Each structure stands twice: as structure tokens, then as C-alpha cells.
Amino acid sequence: MTAVGELVAHGRSADVHSLTTATVVKVFHDDWPDEAIGREVEDATAAFDLGLTPIRCRGRADADGRRAVVFDRIEGVALTTVAEKNPLRMGRVARALAQEHARIHRVASDRFPDVRDVAADLVGTAPFAGLAARERAELLDHLASLPGGESVLHLDFHPMNVFRHGGGIATIDWQSTACGDPAADVAMTRLLFTEAELFPGATRAQLLVYGAARGAMGRMYLKEYLDVTGMTTARLDRWATAARVLRLGMLDIPSERERLLRGIRSVIAR
């Protein structure tokens, strides 16, 4: 059994605690599915093997009787923290975020599920129970019409999951990894900057600062990504509905539910 140390971070699925000078332990909340924990171990291991992150997953553990996973410790701070400490660095942070995302997308792999299949499977879950049979059928048709691809997609890529580390950058939380068209991943990040609830456990100061600044950072991130990769806005917009499906189906956050469903319905109605 692993004895955990001080709390390092709090998230929707787990809390991260200090373990040793070189490792941390991610302790999952009791209601988090065991299947999802196993998937995170597999995906985080694959991400390290593919050179997508320098943070190694050390495997599952028992943390004071709770389910946990051990990871290498990050020697640095999240890009969100960099921007909070000095708002003048927001542009630099946004560019670093975009460049890291583009680097990830240059890696191709078949070790992860197709993002279109992930989204289609979610349509049959509880958050979509309010859709009529016709609406679900039209939504599935829309998802099937989207283009394929081979790039690795993070699907939860935002500045709280990207850190300064060892003189470079480290991206964490590979628990929803897929493969496909990079525009799907960028659409998810755009949604996180515009429609998603702010991160859990945030202080009042963080909510004020990040709430006011995230729109500007999102626009700077998107401009840099499009400039670096040549992706068009039209290609990105094709994935807006799929991004809402992924966000709603993966997390089903009550404060987001109706807004995301309205966005989904507005497209399939056309």
C-alpha cells in the first residue's frame, strides 16, 4: 500500500499527491470508472513511448486503500500559472501551447481509437438520452461524414495540462487519447476556451483572472496554430459539433449540459 504525501493538484477525476522526490501519485475519486483508469495507464504509457510526453506512467498503485496511478514528477509549472503570474506573457504562453499541440499532431499512431468512433459510441450514453431517435440518427450520420486521419489527438489539451518541464514542455493527462484529423483536437481546445466550465477547485482570484483572459488566450492560441499548420477555419468548424459530443459524453458536467445539447441540436436541425 502506498502512503500519499501533500496534495499537489485537484481535478474532476482524481487528486494528485506527492509521493517521492521523483514521483507523484494520482488518486482517483471513488466514482471514477475502473475501466477509465486502466485506459489512462495504457494511453499514458503509449504517449511516453511515442515521444509525446517526457512524463512516464509508473503503473497502478493502492494509495491508502484507494485506486491510484504513479507518474514521474513534473519539475515546473502549468502554462496557466505562467500567464497568471505575468499577464504580459500571455501571448508567449498561447504560442507555446499552439506549437506543442502542432508537435503532437505531427505524430501518427494506430494505438488509439478513431475519434469518430469515440464520439459515435458516446451518442448512446446517458447524457444524450433526451435526444429523439431521429436526432440521434442524424447526429450519427453527421459524425460518420467527418474526415479521417492518423494524428494523435489529446482531446483535453489546455494550459492546465501543459507544463514547463526540464527546459522544455510536458503535456499530461492522456486519459482521452484518440487518433484522427487534428482539427478534431483543435476544435476541442477551442471549445474549452469558449464554452467549457472553468477548472474545478479554482480560487476566486483564478476564476476572475482566467475567466477574463481565457478568450484572449484562446484567440492567440488559435491564430498561432493556424499559422503554424496551415489549417483553415472551415476545416476546424466541421468538428464543432463532434467536440460538443465528446465534451458532453466524456464528462457530462451539469452546468454545461443544456448549452452543449443546444449547440448539437442547432446543427442537426439544419
UniProtKB/TrEMBL annotation:
SUPFAM superfamilies: Protein kinase-like (PK-like). It comes from the Bacteria. One of its GO terms (molecular function) is transferase activity. Residues 7-197 form the Aminoglycoside phosphotransferase domain. Gene3D superfamilies: 3.90.1200.10. It is an enzyme of class 2 (transferase). The keyword Transmembrane helix does not apply. InterPro entries: Aminoglycoside_PTrfase, Kinase-like_dom_sf. This is Aminoglycoside phosphotransferase family protein.
